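Students often ask what a holo structure prediction actually looks like on paper. The answer is less mysterious than it sounds. You provide the chain, you provide the ligand, and the output is a string of discrete structure tokens encoding the 3D arrangement of the protein together with glutamic acid.
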Amino acid sequence: MIKTRFAPSPTGYLHVGGLRTALYSYLVARQTGGKFLLRIEDTDRERFVADGTANILKSLYWAGLIPDEGVTQDEQGAIIQTGDKGPYIQSERLEIYRKYVDELIDKGYAYYCFCSPEKLEEMRMIQQKNKLPTGYDGCCRKIDCTEAKKRALNGESCVIRMNMPKDGETVFNDEIRGEIRIKNELIDDQVILKSDGFPTYHLAVVVDDYLMGITHIIRGEEWLSSVPKHLKLYEYFGWEAPKMAHLPLLLNADKSKLSKRQGDVAVEDYIKKGYLPEAILNFVAFLGWNPGDEREIFSLEDLIKEFSLDKVGKAGSVFNLEKLDWFNQQYLRKLPVEDLTERAKPFFKQAGVELKVEDKQLAKIISLERERVITLAELPEAVKFVFALPNYESTLPVWKKSDANEAKNILSELKEMLYNFSEHQWNIENLETTIGEWIKEKGYQNGNVLWPLRVSLSGQQNSPGPYEIADVLGKEESIRRIETAINKF
Ligand code: GLU
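The corresponding structure tokens follow.
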């Protein structure tokens, strides 16, 4: 059975790149009936953020990428752990790591290192001065193991390093990049256990991926250079390594590595701005993958069917916000209106708008603007004119080929005519046919009637069409707004 994992560090929020890693991992598991696991890698205590895990889970659940195993949420949204390979939070697994570190020491694959930070810094400076590659020079390898253990037991501060052979090269296959070769001399004797008793990422990731039965590791390109160390650890333990796929970098528009300085990178920022999970997932799926043809709209279900790692490219992909906007608009147009209305409500609240209308009416109001906005957060502002007529200049309702007098006369005649509508006749179709015929009968030009009508109903230069607005406002309010316009002239 295929088992993938997403293994974020709780350093604050879910990065869009992390969402892509999670999505691809989720897809690979789902398309084969496998499992998707979530593990929290919190061994770097300096970068630990208290709400980090909760934030990551919130964003993942929002996107619908629900883990089958590992760190999950219960129905109330509390963090829980599910599965028989736990704990799934690395800081709760320290004893497990210690056992494996001891095994490596006993087999001679790892050693105590007593070098102080000052000594390491000095080593680095000398290497730099002599234009040598920087890295640990291996001097503590020479210390006799029994002696070293004694020193450690006596409380001398130390770390444990793995023995990394310096000759030859590591050759492995990456599911996306094919064969990769890295010279072993470039690889340090990596610290695997820190002086605070916490393992480093490198040891913990290998031990956990193995013990948790992970078959496919999917993660960002930045981890590619660590693979030789990991493979060495698998070899030392006598374990078979999982398959690995390293995803291309995400880039800013100027092709530099995607950074906070050039825009939002946290999924929660996009949630707050009113992007739909469907759009974000579709967009993120295309950062590195495409189906090989022209199709662009893919639901999560479609992606499960069609995604494959062999169609993921090696080249970095540009994080193009215009494309994201386009996806969001596509989904805003497609969503059933009741669903759209439910999803829009929190954004009215966020904008401080108290909704005093029923859902059905709100749905109608939202329908006026759903094709014109890019995000849900833009809706309250876009439909504000329905709730309160904006103040506008008396010249605004005058069509460019007309004058104030004519506009006033036409609006007055139109008002008289509209009085004759009964409430139940007041709908888009009737308004459109009746007003259309009336314009013809009178021999007016369309613009001469529809411009002043639309502006008087919306109070805005740009707005949806007059029939749609009139329908939403109802007879009484529409006529009141026409009167307001007439009185302005
Ligand atoms: N904890 C690592 C991160 O934050 C995970 C890397 C991996 O997937 O192996 O990116």
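The first helix runs from residue 16 to 30.
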